[in-house]
Structures are given as structure tokens and as C-alpha cells.
Amino acid sequence: MAGRRLRGAVMSAWILAARRSAVAPRGGALAGVEPHQLAGRVIAQLLADAGVAPAAVDDVVLGNALYGGGNPARRAALAAGIPEAVPAMTIDSQCCAGLDAILLAAERIEAGAAEIIVAGGVESFSRAPIRLRRPRQPGEAPLAYDRPPFTPWPERDPDMIPAAAQLAAELGISRAAQDAFAVDSHRKARSGPAAGEIVAVAGLERDAFARALTPALAARLKPLAGAGSHAVTAATVAVEADAAAAVLVVSGRRLSGLRAFGRPLRILAGARRGGDPVRPGLAPIDAAAAALAGAGLAAGELAAAEIMEAFAVQAMACIDGITLDPAIVNRGGGALSRGHPIGASGAILAVRLWHELQREPPGAAGLCAIAAAGGLGSALVVQSSPMQLA
């Protein structure tokens, strides 16, 4: 499905239902919830929405970046009541993982290898293991580290915050423009999520981070990286967070026998692309271009778009590079006003897009796109069905 259009009603892939938890900053309302509990609750509600028996699921695919091994997708599937005979796998492409899980599910359904797949992502910064490298020599102490390397070249493996500041300087995107983008993200998010979007977990029913951010407050924040007119700050960098999100991807053959609380979305095309590891924020531009070409659409034909806001500068560069109308982008806010649960973030974009397109006329098309460390980008293009299932 790498940038080519899906054809044929029976073998096409559809998103029938989409759910997520609220997003909470690390150490917040979801801090005591293990990843499998977080995702299991979302998956159980997703299946209930569509009237799908757990035994009818062919596979579960979840993205995750921080768990430290094991197979959190398997634990989540079992926690959701899916039978032991149903397989599950976890994939790690860092920030792209949640969206990549959905692309993988669509590819398998198009190939005829499955007909009903739960796909998405889960992340808990709060419950992530502490990382230590084993000593090389006897007597050495273990060495703590925050993140693994994303390339084999240390000089081309920047930390993400300095990379964002460097991108701002290269593209001439000012701190004031970034601040304004972040303020607008919070403004849009404060209207609240769409009805039926969020599954309550640990009593949390709304994203916890959105606030009345003002230009004056944003301007007072100290730079995290960069200097002067192109610096990035706590307002323009998404906070670490906990969340889960999942969609139900089904074949055209099974679509008519199931129900949905809205119009199903046909997956027209998806793409994954690599780019310069030093400028990871730009990788979604090529992925989105490939997905749009595969769908036979221009950016101007889209009704809604969800673009990852790991950094204001990255989102702004992608909106400009994909030539999107800013008015259709992240209409309910983005990661700057929610938080960035790494392995779940791409799936959250897909869930948000599903609910945004329910507000549009039948046949409306949408795009979601996300970048990942190491210079990766993923994108998905969907179109709402003219029919609405009961």
C-alpha cells in the first residue's frame, strides 16, 4: 500500500470504528495505569461499538516505543477479552508506530490475509521502564540513558528538541510564529473532543493538558533549545504523555455485516518514507505526497487533516510542505495541547480524523501524517463512505 490506491470493493480496507483514551501528561491521571490496561479498555469499547465479537478478530497490531520489550499488544488483546487463539504483535517505529500499525493492518486486509484487525498504539511515559546499558567490563556501573540511537552516526543523530530549533532557524520560522501556532492549538482543543471519541480510563474523560495559553505567557517561557527569534520553548514542544488509541480495520466483504456509529472510512492509500535523520520533522512531506498521489487526490481536495504537532515548527513545516489549507488542520487541537504518547500518537491522529470526517458530507477525504526520529514519515489518506451503517 506504499503510495498506491487500493482497488476492489471486497479486498479494500475500511476503518469501521475509532476510539482513544484521553491523553494525560506523564505523572498525571493515567500514571498508575499499565499500558495493557490502557489499551485493553479502548479495544474492548471499540469492539462493542461495532458489534464485533472478540473471537471474530483476526489479529491485533499495536505500536509502542517505550515498553522495553515483551509484546504489549498481546497483553492488551487478552485484557480486552480477545481469545487466546487470536495473535497479536507490537511494532516499534517510534512516533510513526501507531499509524504504521494501521497501514500494516490495511495491507494485510488488502492482501486477503485477514478481514478484521484491531490496529493502533499505546504508550505510557509514566510506566516506561528505566533504561540502563549493561557494563562492558567487570566492575563498571550500568549506564543510564534516555533514548536509543536512531542512526549509526552520532553526528547525524540529533536529539529532537535541538533538531526542531535548528529546523526553525533553517526555515526562518520565528519563535513568535511558533508561539502563535501553539496558542491556537490550545484554543481549538479547549472545545473538547467529539462525542464518542474518548473511552474513559481511570475516570479521565477529557484530554488533561489543554489550557488558556496566551501569547504573553508563551513569550515569557525560557528557550529549551535555539536562541533568539527561532528558539523552541515548553509551549512549542509537546509534553510526554500517556494514552492509547485504536481503530477497527475490516475488509469490504465484512463491512455490510457490521455496525458503526458513523460513516466508515475507506482507506484510499498510505505511504511510509525515509528522509534526512538530521531533519526528521520534514519526512512526512514526502509520505503525504506519495499517499495523496496514490489516492489520486490533491491537497486542496481534502476536507480535514491531522498533522502531528510534536513541535510547532515541525507541524508548520509539514502544513506548508504538503500545501494544506491551515483551516482544515487539527481542528480539535493537536499534540501541543494534548501531549505526545510516542507509540500512540499516530493512531490518535487516525482516530481524530475518523471523528472529524463524521462532521463532513459523505465522500469527504482526509489525511493524517506523522514524523519519527531517525528521519521517518508516515501518512494515510481516507474517504468517508456515502452510506452510514446502523
Please explain how this structure is put together.
This protein has 390 residues and is of the alpha/beta class. The chain has a domain at 13-127 and 239-384: Peroxisomal Thiolase, Chain A, domain 1 (3-Layer(aba) Sandwich). Helices cover 31% and strands 21% of the residues. Strands 1, 2, 3, 4, 5, 8, 11, 12, 13, 14 and 15 form an eleven-stranded mixed β-sheet that branches. Strands 6-7 form a two-stranded antiparallel sheet. Strands 9-10 form a two-stranded antiparallel ribbon. Strand 14 and strand 15 form a beta hairpin. Helix 3 (97-110) packs across helix 11 (342-357) and helix 8 (283-295) runs parallel beside helix 9. The longest helix is centred in the N-terminal third of the chain and has 16 residues, at 35-50. It is globular and about 60 Å long. The two termini are 29 Å apart. The model is unreliable at 1-10 (pLDDT under 50).
CATH superfamily of the domain at 13-127 and 239-384: Thiolase/Chalcone synthase
CATH architecture of the domain at 13-127 and 239-384: 3-Layer(aba) Sandwich
Q: What is the general shape?
A: globular
Number of strands: 15
Could you list the spans in which at least 5 consecutive residues all have pLDDT below 50? Answer: 1-10
CATH class of the domain at 13-127 and 239-384: Alpha Beta
Helix content: 25-40%
SS-derived structural category: alpha/beta
What is the typical, i.e. mean, pLDDT? 94
Count of DSSP H/I helices: 11
Protein name: Putative acetyl-CoA acyltransferase
InterPro entries: Thiolase, Thiolase-like, Thiolase_C, Thiolase_CS, Thiolase_N
Organism: Blastochloris viridis
Family: Belongs to the thiolase-like superfamily. Thiolase family.
